[in-house]
Amino acid sequence: MNIWNIDSMHSEVQFKVKHLMISSVTGNFSEFDAQVKAEDETFENADISFSAKINSISTGNTDRDGHLKSGDFFDAEKFPELKFQSTSFEKKDSDDYKLIGNLTIKNVTKPVELDVEFGGKMVDFYGNEKAGFDISGKIKRKEFGLTWDGITEAGGVVVSDDVKLILNIQLAKG
User: Running DSSP on this structure, what letter comes out for residue 157?
Assistant: First the structure.
Protein backbone atom coordinates (compact mmCIF):
# COMPACT_ATOMS: atom_id res chain seq x y z
CA MET A 1 0.00 0.00 0.00
CA ASN A 2 1.35 3.41 -1.00
CA ILE A 3 0.36 6.45 1.04
CA TRP A 4 0.30 9.83 -0.73
CA ASN A 5 -0.29 13.10 1.15
CA ILE A 6 -1.36 16.39 -0.34
CA ASP A 7 1.34 18.95 -1.01
CA SER A 8 -0.75 21.97 -0.04
CA MET A 9 1.93 24.42 -1.20
CA HIS A 10 1.47 23.13 -4.76
CA SER A 11 -2.30 22.52 -4.68
CA GLU A 12 -5.41 24.68 -5.15
CA VAL A 13 -9.00 24.09 -4.05
CA GLN A 14 -11.39 26.45 -5.84
CA PHE A 15 -15.06 26.89 -6.60
CA LYS A 16 -17.04 29.09 -8.97
CA VAL A 17 -20.63 30.22 -8.57
CA LYS A 18 -22.74 32.50 -10.75
CA HIS A 19 -23.60 35.88 -9.29
CA LEU A 20 -26.76 37.52 -10.63
CA MET A 21 -26.61 34.70 -13.20
CA ILE A 22 -24.39 36.83 -15.46
CA SER A 23 -20.85 36.35 -14.11
CA SER A 24 -18.91 33.97 -11.90
CA VAL A 25 -17.35 34.60 -8.52
CA THR A 26 -14.31 32.47 -7.74
CA GLY A 27 -13.43 31.37 -4.23
CA ASN A 28 -10.94 29.05 -2.63
CA PHE A 29 -10.04 27.27 0.56
CA SER A 30 -6.48 27.90 1.75
CA GLU A 31 -6.44 25.25 4.51
CA PHE A 32 -7.10 21.70 3.41
CA ASP A 33 -5.76 18.19 3.79
CA ALA A 34 -5.95 15.00 1.78
CA GLN A 35 -4.57 11.50 1.81
CA VAL A 36 -4.60 8.89 -0.93
CA LYS A 37 -4.00 5.19 -0.27
CA ALA A 38 -3.18 3.34 -3.48
CA GLU A 39 -2.28 -0.28 -4.10
CA ASP A 40 -0.12 0.55 -7.13
CA GLU A 41 1.20 3.33 -9.35
CA THR A 42 -2.00 3.52 -11.46
CA PHE A 43 -3.98 4.85 -8.47
CA GLU A 44 -6.98 2.81 -9.66
CA ASN A 45 -9.35 1.97 -6.79
CA ALA A 46 -7.42 4.30 -4.47
CA ASP A 47 -8.97 5.33 -1.17
CA ILE A 48 -9.15 9.14 -1.09
CA SER A 49 -10.03 11.37 1.86
CA PHE A 50 -10.13 15.16 1.79
CA SER A 51 -11.12 17.95 4.16
CA ALA A 52 -11.12 21.76 4.05
CA LYS A 53 -11.39 24.30 6.87
CA ILE A 54 -14.44 26.51 6.29
CA ASN A 55 -12.80 29.51 7.99
CA SER A 56 -10.11 29.45 5.29
CA ILE A 57 -12.63 30.38 2.57
CA SER A 58 -11.68 33.41 0.48
CA THR A 59 -13.40 35.12 -2.43
CA GLY A 60 -11.34 38.30 -2.38
CA ASN A 61 -14.05 40.20 -0.49
CA THR A 62 -14.06 40.29 3.33
CA ASP A 63 -17.79 41.00 3.66
CA ARG A 64 -18.74 38.20 1.27
CA ASP A 65 -16.34 35.80 3.02
CA GLY A 66 -17.96 36.65 6.36
CA HIS A 67 -21.40 35.99 4.87
CA LEU A 68 -20.24 32.62 3.51
CA LYS A 69 -18.89 31.63 6.94
CA SER A 70 -22.16 32.66 8.65
CA GLY A 71 -25.26 30.58 9.33
CA ASP A 72 -26.73 31.75 6.00
CA PHE A 73 -24.23 29.49 4.23
CA PHE A 74 -21.54 27.22 5.75
CA ASP A 75 -22.05 28.07 9.46
CA ALA A 76 -18.32 27.68 10.18
CA GLU A 77 -18.82 27.92 13.92
CA LYS A 78 -21.02 24.80 14.05
CA PHE A 79 -19.50 22.99 11.04
CA PRO A 80 -15.79 23.93 10.82
CA GLU A 81 -14.90 21.48 8.02
CA LEU A 82 -16.23 20.03 4.83
CA LYS A 83 -15.19 16.45 4.13
CA PHE A 84 -15.01 14.05 1.21
CA GLN A 85 -14.48 10.27 1.30
CA SER A 86 -14.18 8.28 -1.90
CA THR A 87 -16.25 5.21 -2.61
CA SER A 88 -14.73 4.54 -6.05
CA PHE A 89 -11.82 5.76 -8.18
CA GLU A 90 -12.08 4.20 -11.61
CA LYS A 91 -9.69 4.56 -14.53
CA LYS A 92 -11.50 5.48 -17.77
CA ASP A 93 -8.48 5.66 -20.09
CA SER A 94 -4.77 6.44 -19.84
CA ASP A 95 -5.14 9.79 -18.01
CA ASP A 96 -8.84 10.08 -17.11
CA TYR A 97 -10.57 8.78 -14.01
CA LYS A 98 -14.03 8.99 -12.46
CA LEU A 99 -14.00 9.78 -8.73
CA ILE A 100 -17.16 9.00 -6.78
CA GLY A 101 -17.57 9.63 -3.09
CA ASN A 102 -19.50 11.22 -0.28
CA LEU A 103 -19.22 14.95 0.31
CA THR A 104 -20.25 16.29 3.71
CA ILE A 105 -21.09 19.97 4.18
CA LYS A 106 -22.99 21.21 7.26
CA ASN A 107 -23.59 17.64 8.43
CA VAL A 108 -25.34 16.80 5.13
CA THR A 109 -23.69 13.95 3.22
CA LYS A 110 -24.46 13.36 -0.45
CA PRO A 111 -22.76 11.35 -3.19
CA VAL A 112 -20.82 13.35 -5.78
CA GLU A 113 -19.14 12.39 -9.04
CA LEU A 114 -15.98 14.16 -10.17
CA ASP A 115 -13.85 14.02 -13.31
CA VAL A 116 -10.13 13.54 -12.73
CA GLU A 117 -7.25 14.03 -15.14
CA PHE A 118 -3.99 12.42 -14.05
CA GLY A 119 -1.10 14.76 -14.86
CA GLY A 120 1.58 12.16 -14.23
CA LYS A 121 4.37 11.53 -11.75
CA MET A 122 7.72 13.21 -11.29
CA VAL A 123 10.58 13.25 -8.78
CA ASP A 124 11.27 16.73 -7.41
CA PHE A 125 14.63 18.40 -6.65
CA TYR A 126 14.73 16.74 -3.24
CA GLY A 127 14.10 13.18 -4.42
CA ASN A 128 10.41 13.16 -3.43
CA GLU A 129 8.01 11.35 -5.74
CA LYS A 130 5.05 13.58 -6.69
CA ALA A 131 1.81 12.98 -8.60
CA GLY A 132 -0.54 15.57 -10.06
CA PHE A 133 -4.30 15.57 -10.63
CA ASP A 134 -6.83 18.07 -12.01
CA ILE A 135 -10.29 17.45 -10.55
CA SER A 136 -13.54 19.05 -11.66
CA GLY A 137 -17.22 18.66 -11.03
CA LYS A 138 -20.42 20.40 -10.06
CA ILE A 139 -22.69 20.26 -7.03
CA LYS A 140 -26.03 21.81 -6.11
CA ARG A 141 -25.34 23.93 -3.03
CA LYS A 142 -28.93 23.71 -1.73
CA GLU A 143 -28.64 19.92 -1.46
CA PHE A 144 -25.97 20.52 1.22
CA GLY A 145 -27.97 22.99 3.29
CA LEU A 146 -26.47 26.11 1.67
CA THR A 147 -29.95 27.45 1.01
CA TRP A 148 -29.65 31.23 1.40
CA ASP A 149 -31.32 32.98 -1.51
CA GLY A 150 -31.41 36.60 -2.47
CA ILE A 151 -33.69 38.01 -5.12
CA THR A 152 -33.07 41.36 -6.80
CA GLU A 153 -35.82 43.98 -7.14
CA ALA A 154 -36.23 42.84 -10.74
CA GLY A 155 -36.74 39.23 -9.57
CA GLY A 156 -33.28 37.96 -10.52
CA VAL A 157 -31.44 35.26 -8.58
CA VAL A 158 -28.37 36.57 -6.70
CA VAL A 159 -26.50 33.26 -6.28
CA SER A 160 -26.96 30.20 -8.48
CA ASP A 161 -27.57 26.74 -7.05
CA ASP A 162 -24.84 25.21 -9.24
CA VAL A 163 -21.31 25.37 -7.86
CA LYS A 164 -18.36 24.34 -10.02
CA LEU A 165 -15.49 22.63 -8.22
CA ILE A 166 -11.93 22.96 -9.53
CA LEU A 167 -9.08 21.26 -7.68
CA ASN A 168 -5.47 21.14 -8.81
CA ILE A 169 -3.82 18.64 -6.54
CA GLN A 170 -0.20 17.60 -6.11
CA LEU A 171 0.52 14.59 -3.91
CA ALA A 172 3.78 13.55 -2.28
CA LYS A 173 4.48 9.87 -1.76
CA GLY A 174 4.80 9.22 1.94
Answer: B
